[in-house]
């Protein structure tokens, strides 16, 4: 089985915030790390990249009188370091839309769609003040269906309906707030209507697609898919390859979606296996997982599969599109201008990055918008990490050291009691349940299994009380601690996708090494036998003793310092 993992490409005009991170890149990384344990490193490819083209960059470059690439070079380098070094994101390839391989692939792919492309005159919003044509997301107004006053030119975030700029009531340019005029211009349209029934059949029959993705895709289909313009009147982008399309570029959303394929091609070219990319895009033995925010569902559940179908190639369609709802910050939407939220270059200055990884997975908004609060974040660290997992590990390992001189006691079969059997069953079943949830894109739900096993372990110790048993039956006490040590090995493997460094630390305390070489299925086995020596034991997690007020004060200082070093585009 080949597993393709992708996260939505972050746009480089801003540093991602915590909501962006959990919506795509961090979620994809956690799943990719799980998949490598489950299916083997060589069978998993995880890609993404910086989305660099389009109007925002072009406008900013004009303001600063520089080439757009000068701005995106700096932003891409800054974001790449944050993802790869600071946040431990395990990409096989983190690339960019300015990659020559990407640009060449997009132009070649677009020519394969010509059977479904038609040229039409269209009235496009034009801002006379900023002197630019306004792409769909650069115009806002009131939704004609639900009355939402902040609807975009392509979709209403409130009711999810598909829109066009001309449908908006009181449309305004998002750059200057002025009403645009509409100018006639020629564009190339991809006729989605041809694929209406095919998309409906595919999405309805998918046994793995999440319900929120199905609902959005089917609402588009119900409205009736219509031709969508794939060209824009921007200069900063990939030149459209169609005859007569001089001066036009490919709409950033169409080209960014194709980046999933081009990034895979680029990765295998880098490692000298140029044809291997096809094993992750064609055939029955491929599963593909996309991690995105809910506002990107239509593009991944409708436009991407339609393009893949239209290409004439048998590309594998998405297996799971794991789309999160919104993460709010203390009850409000993230806002850079109003300083509401935490950005991914700020967060590591406040808490250990691996604590953040765990917090965000535990708060992942899988079924509804979720509110991040400092109170809850600190509870997760101090209660779930420290008390539930860390305290359990410390209790078990300390007793093995105290009673058996750090040597794991053997499991004596004839001394196994019903409570022992129940705990062994939890060890055997927890990784399987977690894996099944992960493969449906339910990472938060899957993470519950780690906590459940740790809590069961703590309850098991309290019930069996090996500190008392050791006085009357050393072998029976040894059984309890053997089982508990094995449960810690299971916990370390289950924790690895979320907190790789701390999982490795726990694994090493157990006297084991190279956790990344473990297999997921082996987490269900009682692998540590009697006579095994533990490693050096230390405290696994520490409580965070800080108030939300102190955090906010510290955050203000961090922001002042970062403003001096962030690239021009990201300030």
From TrEMBL:
Its cofactor is Zn(2+). InterPro entries: aa-tRNA-synth_I_CS, Anticodon_Met, Met-tRNA_ligase_1, Met-tRNA_synth, Methionyl/Leucyl_tRNA_Synth, MetRS_core, MetRS_Zn, Rossmann-like_a/b/a_fold. A motif ('KMSKS' region) lies at residues 333-337. It is an enzyme of class 6 (ligase). Zn(2+) binds at residues 143, 146, 156, 159. It holds the Pfam family tRNA-synt_1g. It comes from the Archaea. A motif ('HIGH' region) lies at residues 10-20. It is found in: Cytoplasm. Gene3D superfamilies: HUPs, Isoleucyl-tRNA Synthetase, Domain 1, Methionyl-tRNA synthetase, Zn-domain. GO terms for molecular function: ATP binding; metal ion binding; methionine-tRNA ligase activity. One of its GO terms (biological process) is methionyl-tRNA aminoacylation. It catalyses: tRNA(Met) + L-methionine + ATP = L-methionyl-tRNA(Met) + AMP + diphosphate. Residues 416-545 form the Methionyl-tRNA synthetase anticodon-binding domain. GO terms for cellular component: aminoacyl-tRNA synthetase multienzyme complex; cytosol. Residues 3-397 form the Methionyl/Leucyl tRNA synthetase domain. The keyword Manganese does not apply. Belongs to the class-I aminoacyl-tRNA synthetase family. MetG type 1 subfamily. Is required not only for elongation of protein synthesis but also for the initiation of all mRNA translation through initiator tRNA(fMet) aminoacylation. HAMAP family: Met_tRNA_synth_type1 (MF_00098). This is Methionine--tRNA ligase.
């Amino acid at each position: 089985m080949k597993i393709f993992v992708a996260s939505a490409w972050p746009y480089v005009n801003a540093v991602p915030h915590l909501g962006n991170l959990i919506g795509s890149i961090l979620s994809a990384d956690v799943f990719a790390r799980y998949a490598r344990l489950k299916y083997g490193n060589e069978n998993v490819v995880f890609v993404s990249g910086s989305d660099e083209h389009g109007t925002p960059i072009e406008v900013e470059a004009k303001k600063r009188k520089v080439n757009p690439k000068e701005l995106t070079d700096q932003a891409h380098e800054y974001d790449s370091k944050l993802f790869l070094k600071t946040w431990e994101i395990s990409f096989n390839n983190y690339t960019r839309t300015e990659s020559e391989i990407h640009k060449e692939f997009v132009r070649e792919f677009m020519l394969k769609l010509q059977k479904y492309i038609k040229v039409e005159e269209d009235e496009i919003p034009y801002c006379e003040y900023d002197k630019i044509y306004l792409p769909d997301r650069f115009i806002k107004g009131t939704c004609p269906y639900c009355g939402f006053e902040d609807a975009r030119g392509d979709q209403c975030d409130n009711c999810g309906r598909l829109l066009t700029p001309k449908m908006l009531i009181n449309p305004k340019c998002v750059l200057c707030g002025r009403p645009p005029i509409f100018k006639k211009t020629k564009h190339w349209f991809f006729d989605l209507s041809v694929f209406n029934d095919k998309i409906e059949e595919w999405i309805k029959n998918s046994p793995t697609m999440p319900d929120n993705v199905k609902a959005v895709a089917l609402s588009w289909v119900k409205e009736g898919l219509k031709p969508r313009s794939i060209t824009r009147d921007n200069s900063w982008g990939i030149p459209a390859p169609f005859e007569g399309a001089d001066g036009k570029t490919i709409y950033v959303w169409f080209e960014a979606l194709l980046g999933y394929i081009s990034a895979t091609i680029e990765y295998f070219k880098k490692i000298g296996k140029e044809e291997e990319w096809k094993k992750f895009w064609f055939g029955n033995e491929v599963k593909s997982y996309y991690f995105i925010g809910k506002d990107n569902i239509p593009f991944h559940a409708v436009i991407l599969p339609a393009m893949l179908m239209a290409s004439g190639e048998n590309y594998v369609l998405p297996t799971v599109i794991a789309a999160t709802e919104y993460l709010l910050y203390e009850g409000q939407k993230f806002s850079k201008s109003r300083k509401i939220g935490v950005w991914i270059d700020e967060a590591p200055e406040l808490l250990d990055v691996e604590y953040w990884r765990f917090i965000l997975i535990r708060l992942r908004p899988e079924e509804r918008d979720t509110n991040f609060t400092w109170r809850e974040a600190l509870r997760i660290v101090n209660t779930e990490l420290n008390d539930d997992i860390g305290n359990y590990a410390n209790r078990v390992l300390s007793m093995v050291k105290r009673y058996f001189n750090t040597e794991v006691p053997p499991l004596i079969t004839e001394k196994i009691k019903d409570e022992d059997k129940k705990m062994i069953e939890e060890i055997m079943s927890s990784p399987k349940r977690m894996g099944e949830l992960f493969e449906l894109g339910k990472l938060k739900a899957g993470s519950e299994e780690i906590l459940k096993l740790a809590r069961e372990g703590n309850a098991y110790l309290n019930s069996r009380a090996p500190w008392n048993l050791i006085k009357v039956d050393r072998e029976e006490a040894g059984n309890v601690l053997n089982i508990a040590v094995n449960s810690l090995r299971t916990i370390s493997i289950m924790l690895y996708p979320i907190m790789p460094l701390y999982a490795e630390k726990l694994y090493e305390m157990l006297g084991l090494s190279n956790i990344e070489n473990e297999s997921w299925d082996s987490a269900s086995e009682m692998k540590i036998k009697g006579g095994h020596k533990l490693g050096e034991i230390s405290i696994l997690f520490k409580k965070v003793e800080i108030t939300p007020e102190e955090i906010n004060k510290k955050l203000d200082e961090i922001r002042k310092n970062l403003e001096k070093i962030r690239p021009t585009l990201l300030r």
